[in-house]
């Protein structure tokens, strides 16, 4: 009977060690943040890309008349 309690105690200790460590959680959180930032950047570039391209084209058209 004592061996059963010793085994249960060891299992409980291993369980606590496995689920107490937080290094993996930090890595997952950083991964989610990087993914979210990438999605926001892609969405912003997609929505504003044509407007910015048109703006640069208008500026380039005005500047070509100024070059001697």
Give a verbal description of the structure.
The chain has 68 residues and is mainly alpha-helical. It is 90% helix and 0% strand. The chain is built from two helices and no strands. The longest helix has 42 residues, at 23-64. It is rod-shaped and about 90 Å long.
Would you kindly provide a brief summary of this structure?
The chain has helices spanning 2-20, 23-64. By secondary structure, the protein is mainly alpha-helical. The mean pLDDT is 79.
Q: Round the mean pLDDT to the nearest integer and report it.
A: 79
Q: What fraction of residues sit in β-strands?
A: under 5%
Distance between the termini: 99 Å
Q: Which range best describes the helical content: under 10%, 10-25%, 25-40%, 40-55%, 55-70% or over 70%? A: over 70%
| Oligomeric organization of the protein chains | single chain
Shape: rod-shaped
SS element count, helices: 2
Note the run of SSEs as H and E.
Answer: HH
Alpha-beta content class:
mainly alpha
Major sheet description? none
Q: Which stretches of 5+ consecutive residues score pLDDT under 50?
A: none
Summarize the SSE layout with pairings.
Layout: H1 2-20, H2 23-64
